[in-house]
Structure formats: structure tokens, C-alpha cells
Amino acid sequence: MHERAKFSTRSQCKETSRGMRSSVYMSCFTPQLGPNPSFLDSEKLTRGQSGKLTHGGTLYLVNQNHPFKLHYSLSSNGTATSATPKGLKAKDKTKGGRNEKEAQSSPTPKRSIKDFFQIGNLMLYTAAGVKGSDKIAGFDIDGCIITTKSGKVFPTAPDDWKILYPEIQPRLASLLKNGYKVVFFTNQMGIAKGKLRPEVFKSKVEDILTTLQLPVQVFVASGPGIYRKPVMGMWNHLCEKANDDVPVDKTKSLYVGDAAGRPENWAPGKKKKDFSCSDRLFALNIGLQFHTPEEFFLGWKSAPYRLPEFDPRKLDSNARLYDPPSASFTSSKTEVIVAVGFPASGKSTFFHTHIIPKGYVYVNRDTLGSWQSCVTACERALKEGRSVAVDNTNPDPESRKRYLDVAKAAGVSCRCFHFSASLDQAKHNNRFREMAPSETKHAKVNDMVFHSLTLYFSTFTFLILHMYLYCVRLFFFFFLYVVVLHIQTHLHTSLALCQFYN
User: Fold this and answer.
1) Comparing C-alpha atoms, which of 224, 156, 154 is closest to residue 189?
2) Buried b / exposed e across 452-487, counting CB within 10 Å, b at 16+?
3) CA dist., res. 481 & res. 473, Å (int)
4) Is a pLDDT exceeding 70 seen at residue 87?
5) Is the pTM for the entire model greater than 0.70?
6) Which of 23, 51, 384, 495 is 20 to 30 A away from residue 154, measured at CA?
7) What is the rounded distance in angstroms from the CA atom of residue 310 to the CA atom of residue 342?
8) Which domains does the chain have, with CATH numbers?
């Protein structure tokens, strides 16, 4: 419908007396004019169809976009004075248009949500009746409280959801009765990516809470950062600012989620493996007992699961920082230090902590833009008599040879600092530095980059790669030899024929 939406006039409104003037029931019939489907609350309308919208209902103009709330006000004689939808207004394209001014002056009517709060990538909904408690029962939403009606992984429309199990509502009600505070924690990256409008998701939260008829607090991580599970940002905000100053007892609290790291065929009829283990890691980071929805609501036995291979809890903080122990970080003579290691393996932190403060010139491709600029900066520093620290991955012999040649040309020594963090540890560090605020800016690194570098940093795959390259070269020279031999034979034959005819 887009800008062709047409709202019913007062004369089109249906009023049914229920015996009292203050209890007049009102609705309006809204026709669908455009080719794109619209929704009246959860009712889908296609072109030519009409639907009934009642007081407090929501009209979505195009799929899950452009929501409008319908609100009636009564005159002194009990009749509707207007049928104007209030709340979010479609903006007039002209600056200072009428609709833009109305949107600023018309608050969004609230249903089950008493309070809304937003800071950065955190949105917080608090329903009426929510009270602070030392016992928190936390739940994920998608795949834990609700699932899609369509059976697809992602919802196809705002109303494409249903409560996952009939046991959910009574179990949540029982928790509340026993003094728990029920809190939902959900990641919604689609909001940050522009695939899901915040007001549409807010309306969905209202509908879920209205269906459950329970006082629930809902935390939403709308983008990357410290609030996104498995990082503890949402939990920390709950404990510090959103629990009525009641201290939380983690030994009495729990968390339930479906991203539990379960493998393929973890149960009959559940053949797909979990897309991640972020919910289990979220509970693990906080220190809460964890359950899957099937275990908590249906009483199923615990399913097998797999956590990431790298476990930061097993790191020895007293382990030796470098090897061999007799080595020194810096030298009194001019030199070149070349780092080798995965992205996020600790190279920059080590250099800025132990090397750069000693007067070494810092050379980094992320800063300078290309390896040619890095080589030029290295040459310039050596001409000035200053030592250089090259902070790049430098995975292959060719990239390291550039700096070896520069050092040889300058008549100085060159050392290699190999950072031995595993692939899993480097990927863990990379996710952490993307979430945590830092003064040091790093280029974003995806999994493809990590796995391509694995060929160089694994000894076995390194040998296999070089054997492969050797075989390719050998085949190439053999092929070249055969071609040359064939050409020579052809030339000799041609010369012999020429002599014969002459």
C-alpha cells in the first residue's frame, strides 16, 4: 500500500452499544489497495481485501514496515470524534511536513509494556508488574519461547510466530509464583543490519507478552558489542541498573536457551545441529545453571554438546611469556623484528607493551596500507639508525624475505618473533576485541582469512603445501621439456623434407 493507504472515515466506523455509553465498541474497515500485503495485527491482507481494525490495533502498511496504532476518543455524548491512527506516522517527504510534526507530538500507545529504555545497542522492555528479585530465570526468545508458524528458520512476517510448547506459559507462571523474576535475553542483529525495524520488533514483544499474560522483562542486543550474547553486557545491566537494587544470587538463578552446541541428530526428530553454543556460553560466562528448552519445559534428558576447543579458563597466567628463556625482547644494536602469527594472536599488544616503548619504529600494514609502504618505512628508519618492529601476519617466506633483504642491505640483524596462539584462540581473541572498546583500531577479520592462513601456520599443512608446489613446478618443467622436444623433432623433420625436395 505504501503511500496509498486509506483510512476509514468516521461514517465507516461501526459502533455497537453494550448498554453503557463508556463501553461503546468501535472498529473500522480498512481496504487494501496496493500490490504488497499489509497486516491488521496478525491478519494478512492482499489486494482487494478488507479487514476490521479495533481500538488499540496495529496496521502494518507494507509487510512488517510502517506500523500505525488505531485510537478512538469519545465525545461527551459517547460517539467517536475521530478515527485517527496515532503512534508512528508516515513522514511527509517535504521538510516540516504535517505528518512529521504529528509524529513528534503523538506518543506511541503502549499495551503490555510499562517502560522502554535504550542505550546504544541495548533495548530494554519492562512489562507492567515486573518486580526485582534475587532469583532470575533467564530465557532466550527465538527457538526457546517462540518458533515460527511457517516452519522456516526465520519469520516471514511480523505474525509468523507461535509459542514453542504449551508447557511454557504455566512453567513461567510457576517460576513467578515461586519468587523468580522472568527475564528474556535475545540477540537481534537484524535491527543493526536494517532488516528488522525496532518498532516492529517492539510490537512483536508486546504481542508475545500479551499472549503469555505474564510480567516479563525483555533485554534485546540489537547489534554487535558488549551486549550481544555470549558477552555478559545484558546480564550486567540487569544486575546493576534494572533489578530495583535487589542483589542477584547466581546460585539460585538459571538460564535457558536453544543455542547449546548440540551436534547433528542430538535427538529423534531433531536432526539439525545447533547453529551455535552462544546461549550455553552466556550461562557459562555468568556462572548460571543452564538448560535447553526441551530439558527445562519438557523434562528431556540432557543432550550431548560440544564447546569451542579453546577454553580461556584453562590458560596458565603464570606461563612463560617467551621461549627460549635466555632471549631478550630488544637489542642495543639496530635491528629488524618481524612478527609472524595469526591476526589477534597478540602481536600488537606485545609490541606496544614491550618493544615500541624502547624506541623501535612501528611498521604495520593496517596503518600504512600496503606492504610496499611497510618496506619503505623500514628502509627509512634503518637509514636513520633506528630499529624497526614489523607488526604483520607475514605467514609465507616471500613476505618475510622482503624485510630480510632490507636488513641485509642495511647491514643489521633480523629476528623473527613467532606468536604461537592457535587458530581457535586467535578467533576467540578476534571476537573479543571486536566487542570490547579499544583505542587501537583493527581491520575486521573474517573466518576465511583465518583458515587461509592455517595453511602456513600449521607445520604439516605447510609441508604438504610446499610438496604440492614442488610437484606443480616439476610437472611444469616436464611439460615444457616435452613441448621443446616435440618442436625440435618437428623442425628436424621439416628440414629433412626440404633437403629431399631440393
Assistant:
1) 224
2) ebeebbeeeeeeeeeeeeeeeeeeeeeeeeeeeeee
3) 12
4) no
5) no
6) 51
7) 15
8) 2-92 (2.60.200), 113-297 (3.40.50.1000), 335-457 (3.40.50.300)
- Cα atoms in the 13 Å half-sphere on the side-chain side of 242: 27
* 3-state helix/strand/coil string of 329-348: CCCCCCEEEEEECCCCCCHH
DSSP string, 47-89: TT-EEEEETT-EEEEETTEEEEEE--EE-TTS-EEE--EESS-
Q: What is the DSSP string of 157-191?
A: STT--EES-TTHHHHHHHHHHTTPEEEEEEE-HHH
Name the 3-class secondary structure at 154: coil
d(CA 449, CA 344): 12
Write the burial class of residue 280 (CB in 10 Å: 0-12 exposed, 13-18 middle, 19+ buried).
Answer: buried
Prior bond of 263 cis (ω within 30°) = no
User: CB–CB of 363/389 below 8 Å?
Assistant: yes
Q: Cα-flanking dihedrals φ and ψ of residue 435, to 5°?
A: -85, -40
Cell of 66: 510502517
Strands 162-163 and 146-147, by their bridges, are antiparallel
Between residues 28 and 228, the one the model is more confident about: 228
Mind listing the pLDDT tens digit for each residue in 94-134?
334 444 444 344 444 445 677 888 889 999 999 999 999 99
Is the preceding omega at residue 324 within 30 degrees of 0, hence cis?
yes
Give the Cβ contact number of residue 18 at 10 Å. Answer: 9
Residue pair 56/26 in contact (Cβ under 8 Å)? The answer is: no
Would you place residue 92 in the very low, low, confident or very high pLDDT band (cuts 50, 70, 90)? very low
